[in-house]
Structure formats: C-alpha cells, structure tokens
Predict the structure.
Amino acid sequence: MTAWQELGTGTDGRTRPAVRWNGSAPRPGGAEPWPGGWQPLGARFRTGPEGGRGTNFALWAPQAEAVDLCLFDERGRESRHRLTEQTYQTWHGYLPGVLPGTRYGFRVHGRWDPWTGARHNPAKLLLDPYARAVDGAYTAHDATCGAVRNWPERDVADTVRDDRDSAPHVPKAVVVHDDDDWYDDQRPKTPWAETVLYELHVRGFTMRHPDVPPELRGTYAGLAHPAAIAHLTRLGVTAVELLPVHHHVSEDHLQARGLVNYWGYNTLGYFAPHAGYSASGSRGQQVGEFKRMVRALHAAGIEVILDVVYNHTAEQGVMGPTLSFRGIDNTGYYRPDRSRRGYADYTGCGNTLDTRRPPVIRLITDSLRYWVAEMGVDGFRFDLAAALARGGDGVEMEHPFLAAVSQDPLLSRVKLIAEPWDVGPGGYQVGGFPPLWGEWNDHYRDTVRDFWRGARPDVRELATRLSGSSDLYQRGGRRPYASVNFVTAHDGFTLRDLVSYDRKHNGANGEDNRDGTDDNRSWNHGVEGDSDDPAVRSLRVRQLRNLLTTLLLSSGVPMLTAGDEMGRTQGGNNNAYCQDNETSWLDWSLLDDPDWRSLAELTARLVHLRRAHPVLRQRAFFSGRPAGPDGQRDLTWLTPAGREMTDADWFSPGQALAMRLSGSAISERDQRGREVRDADFLLLLNAAAEPRHFTLPVPHVPVLDTALAGAPDPVPVAEVLLTGRSAVLLTAPAAPRPA
C-alpha cells in the first residue's frame, strides 16, 4: 500500500483526485528538501523533478541567517526542515510527498537587535505571507510576543527576547492545490456609471436568514444560497462590497473581554479567505467555497468587491504578537519610526506597511492579482488608502504603489475604490486620487445628513453633492462616478439609528463609550432610541425615505449599507466592530413590518429607476449650458416658485430646492454613436418642517413621494404641495430621437 491515498473532490466542486496521507508511512518531511525554485513565493503543490508530487516553498527573508520549514501532522506534531537554498534574498526548497492539506509555518533565525529594528526570533512560528489558506485560531498568550511582555522595566521590555514556543497558540498555513480554470464563470463587467454598491458582512448577512439552511448561515456558501441572492436581485444592486474576507484574527484586548474583531480589519493573511466564514472546512476547502460564492453572484449579474486592509497588519505595535511579517523581516515590511525601534503609525493600529519598498509593493500587487485572476473578484475598496501612498514627505499621488496599480494590465481594469484618508498628518485626501480610482465621498455623507436634519443654512453645498461633486472630481479627467456616495457605512450609525439617536450607545464594546465618533450628524426627532409615538415613528420613516431617495438619485455611484433598506438597528452602537451577535446581524423579520417592507420596496424602486434612466446616472459632469434640440440646459436649479436660481437665491437661507434634469441634453452616446435621449426628471426637496408649494415650469407626472408609503397618482400636475421634510420625484415624457 502506498503512503498516500487519492480521495475527494477538487476545490471547484468537480470530482477529481485529491490526496491525503493515510498514516502508513513516515510523517511528511522525513527527507531533506531538494533545492526547488525561488519563485513564485509561498507554497506551490506541483510535480517534482522526478515526476513525483510535492510542494515547493519559497520565503523572502533578506536578513535571515537560516530558515526552518515546519510541517504539522494531524496530531499537531512538528517536523522541521532547514531550507539551505537562497536566491535573490529568497529561501526555498522542494519537499516530495508534501500534498494539499498539509499545515506548515516558518521559523526564521537571525539577529535580535530591536534598537536597529531587527526582531528575528526562531521560537515564534510564522505564517507564510503568501499562504493560500489558514487553519487554526490565534489565541491571546504572552508566548506569541517576540519580546517579554511582563518584563519589569516597561520602557525596555520590547528589547528583551521571549524564547517560549508560540506554535500552540498561532494559526498554521495550509498547502492548497489550485487547478481551477474558471471555465464556467461570466463576469458581469458592470460599467462604473451603472454601478450600485451594497456593503455587507459575509457572516452578518445570513446569520438570521430563515431561508438559508442553519449549517450555511454566516458563510460564503450562505451568501451564495439562492435565498440570499434573491434579496440582492430584488433590490437591483450590481455589486456587493464585502467587509474584509482576508484571513484575520482578534486582538488580545478583545479576547480578554470575550469579544472578537467582527468587522475583520485586522488582517494576517493577504491571500487566504477567512476560514471562519467557511462551511466546508479550513484545510483548503475555504478556497473552493469562496470561488463558488463568486460564481453564484456572477451568475446573478452581481460583481464582488473586496474591502482590503493593506495599510497595517494584525501584529500591531512592537509588543503585539509576532505572527508573520515582524519575525520574517521587521524593517523590510514595516515603516519604522525615527528610532527604528518602533513603527510609524499612520493607521491607529500600531504599525504601517512600508509601501516605499519594492517587496511590499510586490506583496500587495501579487495579492490583488491573485484575488482577481484566481478567485474571480471584480474590484477592491482600500481601507485607509492614503497610508498606501505615503512617501518620504507625506501622501504622494505619484507614489510607486499607485503607479504599479495603474500600469498593471489586470488591476487597471477592475474597480478601485479608495477610502481617501488615514490618521497621519496630511492624510485627508478626498478628491486627490488619480484617474481609475473611485473614492468614498464623506463630503457627500455629511452634507446630506446635515440637510435633512435641518443643519444647513442654504442649499449650495447640497446642489454640488447632488450633481456629482465636480469641485472634488472634475480635475484630471475624472468623471462623476469617481464619487462613491454614501450616507451610512459599516462604521457609524445605521440609517435607522441616524434618525433615532443623538448620541452613541457603545457600552457593550467594553470601552466605557469612549470608542466611536461623536460627530454623527444625527437627529433623534425628539426621543432617544425606539419610540411608540406614531408621529415620531412616521417622521423617522419619512426621513429614511428622504435619505435613500437623495442617495439613489444623485450623480455618482451610490453605496447602500446592508439592512438600511429594511430598517436595521444596532441600538445606537456606532462602532459595532466587536459585536458578532444580533447587534450586527441582519434581522430578516423586519420585512414582516409594513413600514420596513415598504422601505425595502422603495429602495428597489429607486434602484430600478436609476437603472432604467440614463439621465439619473450621468457619465459626465453637467455643463449647465443650453444643449439638445430644444436648447434646454442639462441641469437647471429652480426655486419653489419655478424660476431659475439666481446668485441671490443661492446665498439666501433656505431648505428647499428643485433640480431639473433634461433627458434631451445628455452628453452620452450609445454604442453606435447615437445621442442618448431620456425623459426629463424634476426632483423637489423640502427639509423644512413646514409644507412648501412648488410651481412647476411645465406639468409633470409624480413618480414617487416620500410622504406616501406607496406610489402617488400618475396624473400630470403643475403645482405640488410638498409635505414638510419630504421629497417628490416627477417626470415629463422623453423627447423623440431624431430620425
């Protein structure tokens, strides 16, 4: 009998031989490694020089004096194998008989001299930065730290090496065999101007979904389930933006309080799908499950955008755990401070990856290409993206990292979204990123929140945000869809909480309500929290309709936050990053309430209106000049009296505005070069408490009224009495296309 049995199925679900050790031969790694090759980095299962099967291992570790490859059997027993070959600062070796499913790690020998930034410690088992899968949990234990945490002289504790073995407390990398050719996948390739983003958490989206089988809830397979996808298609969204799915761990301080890093902005493995979201296993099965999820979403016409955290890692500051990068080459991966003993922290998380260094740029771009080419994703949202563009003197928009992405033939064709700030000096860069990049537009968020809570003295700022934020994005040839418009996101109040709370209520986080922003721009409408008062509840629901209508009818790319369309609440917690429970999970029973069901129906109607009418999703900035056969302006701003706004009107106090979009003056052409024609639309907004009369230039047919639960009567009107704090959308017939 051979030492290996062929069993199972491939990672894409199709039946094919897989390999598992049957225990009748010596443990893997009994022989010394063969030389192997120095690239690609990571562990690659392949056919060896003599036709047998095995795995090539390659680790970039330029300052190492020696590298041990460590293999772990089913009982957790470790065998070590010295990698003796080094090429271009990469240690490498090929081990025959090491097959998919094998767990491994590295121990790196070298200088321990924290005063110069060297923090090698072979007592610490290190995760391969290129690991395709990760198995096992990180458990908070002092032995995971490279230095002695309880050293009595605290000011030098980080310089005293801790020689305890960390292996029992840290996750292991897994050898994965990837032979998926994506033969049956069809990417939606939705144009930017037609994109509607839906930000969701893989686990939280389905944990309470009654139609998803219990064993699949909270997993990639759960999100791929027809019941989950049906909600997305009913809404009409074109892309899901997934909170971090790179493998991440929970910080020690959260574990000490019995909490977890639910959001996942604490990345350890940039190539590995988070194992905790896998229903099928963590020994490589998570890779195939993730791919099947992507395929299912693509089949429904939905793109997959990943929220990625390349600005810092889970190793935190110098007294954080040594899990991977710090022990491999501390100053090679991290940006040192002036002393070189600590880190320059532009992220607020203890460290910053040093994207000035080519190996770090390679790590990030290799990761991005892997997720596009081999995992099928369609784009990325970069957390604290300004940190990735930091050079020697601040944020630089000609930074090598941005240049590498923009010239890459694969990455330059996917959707790239920046969170355009970090916590360092000069880190606020909204409007500053180059072409190809979209940006989260917090100017839009703040302006829309302020308008509907009555905090704006006039309507000038609102008009700029409604029309695509040309003040921020018109420079450098960018388009309105560079602005990713949002009113809420994972970080902050939900939409329902935005109209229900004046203050944050974060006590459950265990930080005495100190965490989370105090700048919420929210309004509780007279009662803090939920209310049984029919008047308060009615006004709040109307405000939710106002906010969603404004978001989905503005130029730019709208982003919805999962559950906002059905009145999800976090009980006033505006920083639920550690709440893996009902606080964060979507409550699908809300759709049984008529108010919340009608809100979801309104959201779907707005998304489908946007999709059906090109005048509502402009590809170019408005000119404001007469155009088209009827000489109409593409965009006209009107007073409630029905006349065009003057300079005096713009600077006068007021909370009402009318925006007229001309369907005969669209600058876009179709694929055959013909002019695109559409209906005219008129959007009326009234943020004042009192009703307001609007006179229309010509009769229009009401399309929606946020003061109504259903659709208004489709009868042409020349005048509208707009309820206080409400919005009305009207339309006029489309102009005929010239022969």
Observations:
- Confidence is low (pLDDT under 50) at residues 1-30.
